[in-house]
Specification:
Number of domains: 2
Number of helices: 10
Number of strands: 11
Pfam families: THF_DHG_CYH, THF_DHG_CYH_C
Helix content: 40-55%
EC number: 1.5.1.5, 3.5.4.9
Function: Catalyzes the oxidation of 5,10-methylenetetrahydrofolate to 5,10-methenyltetrahydrofolate and then the hydrolysis of 5,10-methenyltetrahydrofolate to 10-formyltetrahydrofolate.
Largest sheet: 6 strands, parallel
Pathway: One-carbon metabolism; tetrahydrofolate interconversion
CATH architecture of the largest domain: 3-Layer(aba) Sandwich
Distance between the termini: 33 Å
Organism: Novosphingobium cyanobacteriorum
CATH class of the largest domain: Alpha Beta
CATH topology of the largest domain: Rossmann fold
Strand order of the largest sheet: 1-11-8-7-5-6
Bound molecules: 5,10-Methenyltetrahydrofolate
Amino acid sequence: MTAAIIDGKAFAANLRAKVGELAASFEAKAGRKAGLAVVLVGEDPASQVYVRSKGKSTLEAGMNSFEHKLPADTAEADLLAVVEKLNADPAVDGILVQLPLPRHMDEQKVIATISPDKDVDGFHVTNAGRLAVGQPGFVPCTPLGCLMLLKDRLGDLSGLDAVVIGRSNIVGKPMAQLLIAESCTVTVAHSRTKNLADVVKRADIVVAAVGRPEMVKADWIKPGATVIDVGINRVPAAEEGKTKLVGDVDYAGVAEVAGAITPVPGGVGPMTIAVLLRNALVAAFRNEGLDLPADAI
Ligand SMILES: Nc1nc(=O)c2c([nH]1)NC[C@@H]1CN(c3ccc(C(=O)N[C@@H](CCC(=O)O)C(=O)O)cc3)C=[N+]21
């Protein structure tokens, strides 16, 4: 079998266009643009690329983008003060503090300072709790993007066997919660799982989010399964001195067995940014007390 390629880049472009339309309707109703603030501490080159890309997409969707760049040696208290200011700013609907933070900062403390109603990353414990009990809140962008791709591909997910490889707060755990809510039978596997290949082989849906380049092999996959590759790993390329991006899935091998697979790049990555814009717009409607149809985006 040769897998269908799930075009996350195209799906994300479509989602961003829908967000753009709704952003215009928000502006007409609220008399202001929706606003997303992104805070970057330090000069990590990869983080700078993501933040620039987020800022550009935010403006393209017709929303305001507020960027705060702080030096790597910023005191934690000063970062918390910036977050508090953004919490209180009515022009800011969503706040994203780019992770990872420098080592001298307590990430949990910083996340806890973000108002849960502006926490468009869905990282605050309040939003993790809301997701766990099925209340409206904010769901982390990457797993929500994965779910959108899965539903687009498979329709109703109920009764399907799903294996999530990885148990991070950012991807694995919220992904499992979302799949449980879709009535999948969910297994969360990780680096300590015994017979990982056998566990994965049962799955109709595989979500790989472990951060290990090309770990998931073709003979782990049930023929016809849908494979979502969350990994973004930069590895040396064949040509001396060059690098390339690969996922957590051995794409060439797995594409021979799976029914459908997301590529890296061009799969889950672009969805993360599109869902961030979606969450920021949802935050704007909620913060203004305006109705947004439940199935609008
Ligand atoms: N508070 C916070 N929220 C985040 O959502 C967050 C973060 N911190 N820190 C860093 C990670 C990483 N991340 C990505 C977003 C888009 C792509 C993306 O668009 N990737 C492209 C390729 C980009 C490239 O070529 O490097 C793709 O997969 O096709 C990747 C990674 C969001 N993150």
